[in-house]
Amino acid sequence: MFTLFFVRKTQPRMVFSCIFGKHHFEISDTIMSTNSIYKTSNTIKSFVLSPHFGDGLRITFGVVLPSLLLAQFDLLKTGINISLGALCASIADTPGPITHRRNAMFFTIGLVTIVSLITGLATISVFVTALLIGGLSFLFSMSYIYGNRASSIGVAALLVMILGIDDIRPLSEIVMYSLFITLGGIWYTALSLSLYKIMPYRLATLSLAECVMEIADFMKIKAGFYHAGMDYDENYKKLIEAQITVNERLDAVREQLFKSREIVRENTQEGRFLLVVFVDMVDLYEQIISTFYNYQKLHKQFDHTGILTDFEVILTLLSQQIEEIAFSLKDGTKPNFDLSLPRKIQELKLAIEALSPEGDTIGESAIFSSTGLQALKNIEVNVENIYLRIKKIKGYFKEKQLKKLGRNEIKINSFTSHQEYELDTFFENLNLKSENFRHALRVSGMMLIGFIIAQSFNFLHSNWILLTIMVIMKPAYSLTKERNLDRLIGTVSGAFIGMMILNYVTNDYWLFGILLFCMLGTYSFQRKTYLVSVVFMTPFILILFDFLGMGSRALMIERVYDTIIGGGLAFIGSYVLLPNWEHEKLRKTLGEMLEANLAYYHQVAQMYFGEKYDRVPYKIIRKEVFVRSANLASGFQRMFSEPKHKQLSINEVHKFSVLNHLMSSYVATLALYAKEHFETLPDFEELKQIAQNTENMMNEAIKIIEQSEFVTKENIQILKLKATTETDEESKIVIPEQFMNLQKVAFDICKISERIRL
C-alpha cells in the first residue's frame, strides 16, 4: 500500500583547479557546496511537483478535514469514523483514467460499508470473528487476479475489517458507524472528482513528467558505459533496474492518456500536446536503447584518445535536456535549450573524422580498426538523432502556445489492454497452480494465526498484528521480504522519532503541525517508498494517540512488538506455506522474451527486403519488447532476492537477459536506420539467408526453453556472409555488420538457453 523516494541526479560535478595552493581546495569545496545545494533544491522541486506529493496533499486534506471540523463540536469520534471512510476511498483512488478511478471509489464505498456492518455483527463471538477474518482475508486477497486497482479495493475492505474486530458495539452504533464510513467515502470521492474537473490534465501531465524524468535517468546510466574504468556489470544492473522503472512509467502514462476520453478526442491543444510529447518520448527511448555496443572493445581502442569521455559528457548534457522537459511539464514553463550542444556534437564529429585506420594525430599506425571507427560514427549519428528528437519535443511547447498542434493519427486502442472482471476468472484460479490462490491461502492462514496469538496475550493488539500481515504479505517471496525489512526498520526508526518529538515538543499547536506534516509524508510516499512512508506513519500515530489521551510510550513498545510478530508471521508464511518461487514461472517469461524479440527482428528485417514500414504494427511489437524486457528483468531481480538454493541457473538467466537486451538494441538500431533511409536503401538480397538463419536460431531457442523434443541442432550455426565488393557506401558497411551481430547474438542465446535449468 505504501511505496520509493527517488533522488534525481543532476549535472556532473565540476571542480576547477587553482594554482594558488590551499585556495584550490577552497574553490573546489565552494563549487561542490554550490552543486550540492543545486541538486538538493532540484530534488525538492522535483518531489513537490510530483504526482506523489499531489496525492499526499489531497488525501491528507480529505482525511483530516472531517475530524478537524467535527472536533469543534465535540464530535471527534464521529469525525474519525468519517475520516476512516475517506481513507478507504483514497486507497482505491490510484492513478489512471478518471472513469476507472470514479468507479473504483464508488465500489469501494459500497464494499467497505457492507464489511463494516458484517464485522460489527461478528464481534458478538470470538469464533465468528475468527471465521470472518479467515474468509474475508482469502476473498479479498484473491482480488489480485483482477489487477492492481481491484487489489487496492480489497486492501480497503480488509482495513475496515481489521480496525473493527476489537470494537464491540450495540446494533444502533454499528449501523451509525457504517453510515459515517459511507459519508467519509462519499466526501473524499466528491473532493477527488472536483479536483479533476478543475484540473483535468494535471495528473496526466505529472505522470508524463515522471516518465520523462526516468528516461533521462536511463540515458545517464547509458552515458556511464563511456566512462573509463567503469564496472560494466554494475552499470548494466543499474540499467536493467532503470528499464523496469521506465516501462512501469510508460504503462502508467499509456493508461492515463489513451483511456481518458478528454485526451483521446484531442479537442484541446493540451490533450494533443500530451499525446504528441508521449509518442515522441517513446521513440526517443527507442533511440537511447539502440546506443548499445561492445563497450569493452571501444575502451580498449579509444580510451587514450579521450573521445569516449566526450561521448559521456554530451550524452549527460542530453539527459539534462530531457530533464528540462520534465520540469517544464511539471511547472508549465517552456524548457530552456543548451545552445552549446550543436557545437559540441559538431566538434565530436570532427574528432571522430580525425581518427583513421592508418594512424591517429600522434602518428602511431594501425591503432584503430575500421569496425571500431564505424561504431563511433554510428554512435555519433544516433547522438545527433537524439538531439534532434529532443529539439522537436521542445518545439511542441512553443506550438502549444501558438495553438498549431495537429491531431495525432495513432490508433489508440491498439496500445491499451482491458481488464475483464468476470466471475469465471475467479473460479478458474481456485487451484494450487494459481499463484494468487496460494497467496490468498497464505494471507488467510497467517491472519488467522495472528488473531489467535493476539487473543492469547492481553498486551498485544490484534488489529496492528493483522494490519502488519496485510500490508507486508505479497504474492512474491522477494516482495514480502523487502516489505518486512522496510516495516521493521520504519517502525523502530519512526517510534524513536515520535518519542523524541513528544519529549521535546509540548506546544499543542506545534504538535498538531508536526502531525499534519507526518500525515502528508505518509500519504505522499505510500505509493513511492514504503520505508519512508512507515517512518512518517509511526510518529503520526503516536502523536495522534497522545492527543486522544491514550498514552504514547507504552504504545510505542506495543507497536514494535506487534510489528515484529506480524512481520515474523508474514515471513514464515511466505517461506513455508505454499510459497511462490520465481524459478517456477521464469521459463514462461524467458519464452515470452524470445517471442517478442523474434517478432521485433522479423518486422524490422523485412524492411530491408522490400516490405514497407507500417507504423502501428511496428510500434505494437516494439511495446511488447519493452514490456517483456521489463518482465524478465523484474523476474531476475525477484529471484536474486530469494534464498540461494532457490536461485536456479541465476548466472545463466543473467547472461540470457543481457543477450536479449543486446538483441533488442541491435534491432532498434536497424529499425531507426531503415525508417530514416527507407527510400534510399540499397539491395540487401545477400543478407536474406543471414536474416532467415537468425530467425531459425531464435525459434530453436524458444523450443529449448520450452523443453521441446523437436529441437533441430543443425539450425544452430553461424553462416558466413558471402564476400562482397569493397565499397565506401555507409549502409553497405553498417547494415551487414548489424545483421551479422544479430546472428551471433541469436547463436549465443541458443547456447545459453541450453545451460538454463529451471
UniProtKB/TrEMBL annotation:
Record keywords: Cell membrane, Membrane, Transmembrane, Transmembrane helix
Span of domain Integral membrane protein YccS N-terminal: 105-358
Keyword match Transmembrane: yes
Domain Integral membrane bound transporter, first and last residues per copy: 450-572
GO cellular component, one term: plasma membrane
Pfam families: FUSC-like (PF12805), FUSC_2 (PF13515)
Main location: membrane
Transmembrane segments: 107-140, 146-165, 177-196, 446-473, 485-503, 509-525, 530-548, 560-578
Topology term for the membrane: Multi-pass membrane protein
Cellular location(s): Cell membrane
Family named by the database record: Belongs to the YccS/YhfK family.
Protein name per its UniProtKB record: Putative membrane protein (TIGR01666 family)
Organism expressing this protein natively: Arcicella aurantiaca
